Amino acid sequence: MDTPARARVWDLTRAGIRAGLDASLARLGVDAVDIVLLHDVEDRLPEVYATGFPALAELRDQKAVRAVGFGMNHSDVLARLVADLDVDVVLCAGRWTLLERTAFDDLLPVCERRGTSVVVGGVYNSGLLADPSPGAPYSYAPAAPALLARARQPGEICAEFAVPLKAAALRFPFGHPAVDSAVVGAAGPQEAAENAALFAWEIPDALWHTLVARGLLGPDLPLPLTAPGA
Question: What structural domains does the chain harbor?
Fold first, then answer.
């Protein structure tokens, strides 16, 4: 079957956002959703402030949705939006992982202060932390050799503790109190079951302390310890 002609249309007006939500509800076959996010709007901030977020807030006030916010991989822009607006939740992709701490420096502090929940996406940095082998992707392109080498280092330590690198990458973001959940893609039931098993993996606190001791995690970073303070 031929794919019908289509094009992305940006419409951050009240009517446009309502139409987008209604279309999503129809495709999903449901009457309501809990969360609505404006996604990848970093280049459209004037529209966001003028009409986009007010439209989301109106939907929340009407109890058409429970929570509203933004999703993108620019943690600095998310930090600005959380500081300026009454944001319930943000989805931040790839900026708070075993390899990247950008969100720790800009987004997570303001979310903790404002009580904004954080959903972490891209815990594997586009796949690099899932399998740091030649050709592995990072930010939607093949990872450079130096980055590949850096990504292998936490995997070597994980192997010492018989913990899959993917399990550590999935658990790490939850060390920060502002993080409520993570989005992990699944191509089917088998991968969904694997994700659940990885998240339930028992990871000894010694693994996190070893990552810090060997310079792979900063000593100031919060760790997902089973015995906090240990």
Answer: 9-63 (no CATH), 73-230 (3.20.20.100)
